[in-house]
Amino acid sequence: MVTPTPANPLLPPGFTILALETSCDETAAAIVCDGRTLVANVVASQMDQHQRYGGVVPEVASRQHILALVPVLEQAMTTLPTGWENLHAVAATCGPGLSGALLTGLNAAKAIAWQRDLPFIGVNHLDAHIYANWLIPEAAAASPSPPPSFPCVALVVSGGHTLLALLTDHGHYQLLGQTRDDAAGEAFDKVARILGLGYPGGPAIEQAARGFQGTGSLPRAWLPGTYDFSFSGLKTAVLHKVQERQEWEAEATSAAPALGASPRRKPRKNEQAIAIDMPIDQFTAQVAGAFQESVVDVLVTKTIRAAQEYGATEILLAGGVAANGRLRSELSRRADCPVRCPPVALCTDNAAMVAAAAYYRYRAGLQSDWSLDVQPNLPLGR
Ligand code: KG4
Ligand code: ZN
Questions:
Q1: What's this model's pTM, rounded to 2 decimal places?
Q2: 201 ligand 1 Cβ < 6 A
Q3: N or C: which terminus of the chain has fewer CB atoms within 10 Å of its end residue's CB?
């Protein structure tokens, strides 16, 4: 539920928002001033709890948020000299995300806002990722750059979503395209699991791909005439490549006593194919590298085309996969307009981005009422 309040384009300077984020596997609290200045940004990751399962377990995530929320909130609040008196509004992510996880942060934020008699603002997690681009990075605090300008094109690439959107003003979004199957981050996580690289997959793939020698490639799903994406075929191509190698290894092992170390069946080799008969570390690096190149090529090509078609003044990169160095550098290198990426720590889930999005939402005259519930499938811009 959204209650329109009179739009207030000029909130008083120093307007300070406390925000909570618990949509997935990070418990986060942040305090942001004037929608851009970081006062506190505390994130407790649950990575250790989920690692052994190879992915996020919703029930474990919910319990962990309950345990971590108060300490995280207390740590964020220590940065305010006069404590709660400094706050002007409270915000929390209301969706999309895991319902049990979202409930913790949303209800805590409502309770604080109610008790302090402050406005309460429910925030869309996808919008929040985009608004990480409004935050002034700590390293640039002395000479902040101006905020993003409209129209701009945003590429949101996270563990649960992959989409391209045109932003013509605060709160005015047009969805240009989205994934038809796996999200980009999900593909990174699944491919990392296939390659035995552990969880979370994105950073592990990026690390493994450092040894990529550019000698092989994997398919790209272009879906011509659309700004949609598809990564499941690519994931299957990786699976087949790994299975091909496993079969080759099995044959080599069973043939070993009679034939020495050499395999009976020669692997297929051509310039594009990834050879399966190299040392395992090298093989893993080639597959990880070719996978990363494929994802980055499609994301970058489509984003640049959208920016050109819609006359974007800049491109905003957002979401956990925006932490990927290859994606950041290729997009900046190939785009013919400025590209803005949040600092790596603000790409993955955090509450500072929620506070930034909440500021512009409240400034446009929107605030939520107490009936606001979690919305696990909330689409962008709602
Ligand atoms: O935005 P986020 O923190 O959570 C969601 O909203 O989903 O994104 C998490 C996703 C995971 O799939 C993770 O593997 C991916 O972001 N990720 C990366 C990198 N760091 C995190 N993907 C590629 N390269 C990275 N360096
Ligand atoms: Zn996220």
A1: 0.93
A2: yes
A3: N
